[in-house]
């Protein structure tokens, strides 16, 4: 992800690698108003235990190392992953009937520590608030560079609208690996992948969530 904390972690690496360094379990909630308009999307990120440890150490928290934060420490850490640089899309692509949706920057940010893992939530408003009833919403969380790997294992639902079918379309991992290997094969042994414009392969490993809602 393109938060300041993640950029700092990237800069400490000795060389770019063609595999993920951060693993996130993601959840998505489409928030619909009484008129059936899609107002916002709530996003949950549950970070892997190792990255959670790195972040707490970086912030000087959890000095006893028990992977439990006090409410004060959670408040101090809240928003660490919301310092988005210009142009960062929050690692989320949303489309309605195939047309891209514009999402706002995050608001209503929360953070807790659960079983040694940092779990954050944020809400992104949907610009224009299009009607969801009778349409299909697609959401795909992914990091184009594949530095962060997202797995949609948490809650996925529509809030405020009944009659919606939800499907998870898993990626073709074999095809994704072939795409990555093809890109790697074109790099020289001593060539820097970033300077060479290494292709963005993250979407090839992304799960697509599709929410199809019946007309009212």
Structure description:
This protein is α+β, with helices and mostly antiparallel strands and 216 residues long. The chain has one domain. The chain has four helices and eleven strands. It has helices at 4-11, 49-58, 71-77, 173-185, and strands spanning 22-32, 38-47, 92-96, 99-100, 107-114, 117-125, 136-141, 148-151, 156-159, 164-169, 208-213. Strand 5 (107-114) and strand 6 (117-125) form a beta hairpin. The radius of gyration is 18 Å and the shape is globular.
Provide mean pLDDT, rounded: 87
- How many beta-strand runs? 11
Provide the number of structural domains.
Answer: 1
The secondary-structure element order is: HEEHHEEEEEEEEHE
Largest sheet: 6 strands, mixed
């Amino acid at each position: 992800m393109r938060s300041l904390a993640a950029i700092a972690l990237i800069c400490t690496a000795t060389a770019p690698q063609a595999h993920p360094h951060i693993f996130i379990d993601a959840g998505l909630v489409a928030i619909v108003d009484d008129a059936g308009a899609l107002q916002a999307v709530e996003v949950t990120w549950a970070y892997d235990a190792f990255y959670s440890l790195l972040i707490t150490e970086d912030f000087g928290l959890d000095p006893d190392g028990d992977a439990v934060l006090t409410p004060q420490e959670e408040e101090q850490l809240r928003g660490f992953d919301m310092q988005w640089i210009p142009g960062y899309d929050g690692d989320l692509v949303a489309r309605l009937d195939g047309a891209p949706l514009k999402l706002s920057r995050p608001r209503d940010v929360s953070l807790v520590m659960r079983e040694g893992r940092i779990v954050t939530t944020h809400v992104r408003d949907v610009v224009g608030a299009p009607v969801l009833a009778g349409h299909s919403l697609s959401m795909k969380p992914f990091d184009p560079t594949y530095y962060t790997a997202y797995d949609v294992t948490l809650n996925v639902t529509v809030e405020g609208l009944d009659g919606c079918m939800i499907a998870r379309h898993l990626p073709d991992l074999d095809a994704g690996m072939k795409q990555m290997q093809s890109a790697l094969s074109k790099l020289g042994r001593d060539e820097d992948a970033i300077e060479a414009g290494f292709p963005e392969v993250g979407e090839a490993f992304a799960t697509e969530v599709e929410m199809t809602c019946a007309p009212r």
